[in-house]
């Protein structure tokens, strides 16, 4: 017994053309998906992140001397580990928003160390706000509070991590300036009211 598609193809000669077109479209779709995946992976590398001098001379230089870059165990967190979500939809949203970074590069808003420092707090607030809104999701991709050994921590740290577990605090409230220099002034992430300046 012939399938419905086989009978349709025998009756309609243009059905074979549709079949070829469908295969071509599927092939193009597969190439676009593969190309997109390669592009996403490339834009998450340190080499890509430091391809503009603003990031290389400021952020990367600071980061390269921190525990996230060099430590006794050799575990390394790269730019994308902290600044790009791991979930696909959130990654795409972050990549679209990162277009502003490219715009700032071409407008030369932060092209010198002096200009970078002038805008450091403004840029830090954007990152801190995003981290607070996501409950420090990118930190938690590597750091699991439940896997920590409180007896290996000081009393103050134990108390702060209890606030983390209860939802009263998030990682960035205490752990800022850990991979990049803290902006000048008395402002801290815990001072941010999410959704407001």
Structural topology:
Elements: H1 4-11, H2 15-42, H3 46-49, H4 53-63, H5 79-83, H6 88-97, H7 99-106, H8 113-133, H9 137-140, H10 155-166, H11 171-174
Task: Explain what this protein looks like in three dimensions.
- The protein is mostly helical and 197 residues long.
- Helix content is 58%, strand content 0%.
- It contains eleven helices and no strands.
- The longest helix has 28 residues, at 15-42.
* SSE arrangement, N to C: HHHHHHHHHHH
> What is the tally of helical segments?
11
What is the general shape?
elongated
The structure class reads mainly alpha
* Largest sheet geometry: none
**Integer average pLDDT:** 86
The tally of beta strands, per DSSP, is 0
- The radius of gyration over CA amounts to 24 Å
What are the low-pLDDT stretches, counting only 5+ consecutive residues below 50? none
Distance between the termini: 70 Å
Percentage of residues in DSSP E strands: under 5%
Share of helical residues: 55-70%
Short description:
The protein is mostly helical and 197 residues long. Helix content is 58%, strand content 0%. The protein has helices at residues 4-11, 15-42, 46-49, 53-63, 79-83, 88-97, 99-106, 113-133, 137-140, 155-166, 171-174.
Offer a few descriptive terms.
single chain; 197 residues; mainly alpha; 58% helix; 0% strand; elongated
